[in-house]
C-alpha cells in the first residue's frame, strides 16, 4: 500500500477513509467518531499553538482559511473529507489541527504557501445548509478568528448572487470559489496587456504606471 491514511472510526464499526491528502503527504493518523446529524463529535481535537493565527471567512459553497505560521519550513497540508485539516512543518511546534464543523470535498479543495501564510480554499460538501455557525467543532479557540474584511452575511451573499451587476463580479467569482485563482489570473492578464502596450522608458520617471 505504501500510503498513509486518515482514519474515521464509525460507530459501531471502524473503517478507513480513502487517501484524501492533497498537495502533500502527512504521517499523522487521527481517529474521529461520527455523531448524529452532519457534524462530528470529538474531544478537543482542534489545536492551534500560540504564535499561530487562523483567520477565516465563508461563502455558501466554500471556506477560505488563512493560517499565519511565522518561519514555517517545508509546510505540508493533509485534509480528509470528514473535515480534518492538519498543518505540519519541519519544526514540530508548527503543527496545527482543525476539525471543521462539517464535511468538505478534498478533491475540489486547494492550498498554497506564501510567505508566512498557508492559504486554503475548501469546498463544502453539504451545499444548501447555509452558512456555518462556526469554523471548528468544540470550544472557541482564542487564535481562530473571523476575517471581517472579507466576511459577508448570508443575506448579502444572496443579494449579490441575485444582482451581480451591482457588485465587483470578478472579486466575487474568486471569493465564492467559482474559479480558483480567478482574481490572480485577472491581474496577471491585465499586467501582461499593459506591458505589451507600454511605451515608457526605464529612465522616464514621469511615465511610471502603478499596476494593481
Question: Any key phrases for this structure?
Answer:
single chain; 28% strand; Immunoglobulin-like; globular; 212 residues; 2 domains; disordered C terminus; alpha+beta; 15% helix; disordered N terminus; four-stranded mixed sheet; five-stranded mixed sheet
Summarize it:
The chain is 15% helix and 28% strand.
The global form is: globular
Number of alpha- plus pi-helical segments: 3
Which architecture of the largest domain does the CATH hierarchy give at level 2?
A: Sandwich
Low-confidence stretches: 1-42, 173-183, 205-212
Q: What's the number of extended β-strand segments?
A: 12
**Beta-strand content:** 25-35%
Please give the domain count. Answer: 2
Major sheet, described briefly?
5 strands, mixed
Quaternary organisation: single chain
CATH class of the largest domain: Mainly Beta
The first-to-last residue Cα distance is 48 Å
Describe what this molecule looks like in 3D.
The strands form three sheets. Strands 10-11-6-5-12 form a five-stranded mixed sheet, with no helix packed on it. The chain has a four-stranded mixed sheet with strand order 2-1-3-4, with no helix packed on it. Strand 5 (53-58) and strand 6 form a beta hairpin. The chain starts with 6 loop residues before the first strand and ends in a 16-residue tail after the last helix. It is globular. The protein is of the alpha+beta class. The protein has helices at residues 154-162, 169-175, 182-196, and strands spanning 7-9, 15-16, 31-34, 40-41, 53-58, 62-68, 76-79, 84-88, 96-99, 104-114, 117-124, 144-146. It is built from three helices and twelve strands. It has two domains: 7-150, Sandwich (Immunoglobulin-like), CATH 2.60.40; 152-198, no CATH class.
